[in-house]
Write a structure and sequence with these properties.
Structural class: mainly alpha
CATH architecture: Up-down Bundle
Order of helices and strands: HHHHHHHHHH
Radius of gyration: 24 Å
Shape: globular
Number of strands: 0
CATH topology: 3 helical TM bundles of succinate and fumarate reductases
CATH superfamily: Fumarate reductase/succinate dehydrogenase, transmembrane subunit
Number of helices: 10
Number of domains: 1
Strand content: under 5%
Helix content: over 70%
Length: 249
């Protein structure tokens, strides 16, 4: 009987060990890579709306090929759902003792859990607001054919949207950069204190740089104004002037 219990406990430990490893890996690839790419693409709005529109058009070439939905589900939504749901399970079962023991690791551990929950809520809101999946629920404000103007209009729709984006992007960037530092330890890449300290510097620099990219993108959309479109009368007058052969009949 004792051997059976030990075997069952061992199988359970291996099961949770595998889930933890998959959770750690999915947070880096593809979720972390997607966050990095997504913020960089959004930051192209700082170079002008046409630059951002060009990037969106390149991405939506996949839609013309009938691959966008498959790519989104396989490489974004399903890994993200697994990482988020299992992350919430970890957070709810975690012993966050940063108040009692204010050591660096305890504070980072607590922040990792809380930023994960905030990032999860933010991503759900972001998907509702911007992705076509949110259309049945009154969302889906992003229009691929008019990417800069529709994104700017969605973010500028309310002051609390902008605030939520600041908090959400900050939480997501911290969760990724600190997650990279933790993953390097978890996977046995940085074992000694010196290696962990050096990787901590790199992860901090990466986090600061990515946060600047994210805040730059947000600033670009909060200050973006779509070029004025000529009304029909102005367009008609311009066409009349441009065509001296034009007559009333």
């Amino acid at each position: 009987m004792a051997g059976t219990i030990t075997s069952a406990e061992s199988a359970k430990e291996k099961y949770f060990f595998l889930l933890r490893r998959l959770h750690s890996l999915s947070g880096l690839v593809p979720v972390g890579v997607f966050l990095l790419w997504h913020l960089i693409v959004n930051a192209t709005v700082l170079a002008g709306g046409d630059k951002f529109q060009f990037m969106v058009d390149q991405i939506h070439q996949l839609q013309k090929a009938g691959l966008l939905f498959v790519v989104e589900m396989a490489f974004i939504f399903l890994p993200l759902a697994f990482h988020a749901v299992y992350g919430v399970v970890i957070a709810l079962s975690a012993d966050m003792n940063a108040r009692e023991y204010r050591y660096g690791p305890n504070i980072r551990y607590t922040l990792q859990r809380w930023t994960g929950i905030i990032a999860f809520a933010f991503i759900m809101f972001h998907v509702w607001q911007m992705h076509w999946l949110g259309e049945p629920f009154g969302g889906s404000m992003f229009k691929p054919h008019d990417a800069p103007a529709s994104t700017a209009a969605a973010i500028q729709a309310s002051w609390w949207f902008i605030t939520f984006y600041i908090v959400g992007v900050t939480a997501s960037v911290y969760h990724l950069s600190n997650g990279i530092w933790t993953a390097l330890i978890t996977w046995g890449i940085t074992i000694g204190q010196r290696a962990q300290r050096i990787s901590g510097y790199f992860c901090t620099a990466f986090g600061v740089a990515l946060l600047l990219v994210g805040m730059g993108a947000l600033w670009g959309f909060t200050t973006y104004h779509a070029p004025a479109q000529p009304d029909q009368e102005t367009a008609h007058t311009a066409a009349f002037v441009a065509d001296p052969q034009h007559d009333s009949h």
